[in-house]
Amino acid sequence: MSNAVPRVLLLDDDPVLLQGLCDMLTYRLRPAVVVVQASSDNIVAKVRDGHYDVVVCDLKMPRQGGLEVIRQIKTANPDQRIILMTGCIEESIDDQAQEHGADAVLRKPLDRDEVVRIIRSLVELSHTAVKSEAGETEGLPPAPV
């Protein structure tokens, strides 16, 4: 895995879930920057300004649901890695999430090992994409311009 510190934004209107997930990820991904937000207000600006590797977003939230949040974030930044969390058991949610640009769907109650595994995988993809954009590859200097 890359040496860069993972940056994760958690978006959910449930303060208990947010705090528990934040504590768990801060411990299991250490060192990591894990930021919580309880509403989708100004989420596109928050994601842009925070330079997060992964955004973890709940499906059901007041004012604006997770699918709309994903659509807005992906419109602003198509490369942003996003995980949708849901307590909904309908399999059609997976298809809808994928259509909107989610990289993964996690079902509540969350399996901590699965959450960490998926976030690590997406963080690595995010860091690899940044290296590719910078013209870097493992062990090789950037290509001459």
Structure write-up:
- This protein is of the alpha/beta class and 145 residues long.
- It has one domain: Response regulator (Rossmann fold, 3-Layer(aba) Sandwich).
- Helix content is 44%, strand content 17%.
- It is built from 5 helices and 5 strands; from the N terminus they run E-H-E-H-E-H-E-H-E-H.
- The chain has helices spanning 15-28, 43-50, 66-76, 92-100, 112-133; strands spanning 7-11, 33-37, 54-58, 81-86, 104-107.
- Helix 1 links the parallel strand 1 (7-11) and strand 2 (33-37).
Key descriptive features of the protein:
disordered C terminus; alpha/beta; 145 residues; Rossmann fold; 5 helices; five-stranded parallel sheet
Overall CATH class: Alpha Beta
Largest sheet: 5 strands, parallel
User: How many structural units, i.e. domains?
Assistant: 1
Number of strands: 5
Which class do the helix and strand fractions yield? alpha/beta
Tell me the overall shape.
globular
What percent strand?
Answer: 15-25%
CATH superfamily caption = Response regulator
- Helix proportion range: 40-55%
Mean model confidence by pLDDT: 91
Q: What is the level-2 CATH architecture name?
A: 3-Layer(aba) Sandwich
Strands in their spatial order, largest beta sheet = 2-1-3-4-5
The CATH topology, please?
Rossmann fold
Order of helices and strands: EHEHEHEHEH
Q: What is the CA-CA span between the terminal residues?
A: 28 Å
Annotation field: number of helices: 5
- Ranges where pLDDT stays below 50 over 5 or more residues in a row are 137-145
What radius of gyration results from the CA coordinates? Answer: 15 Å
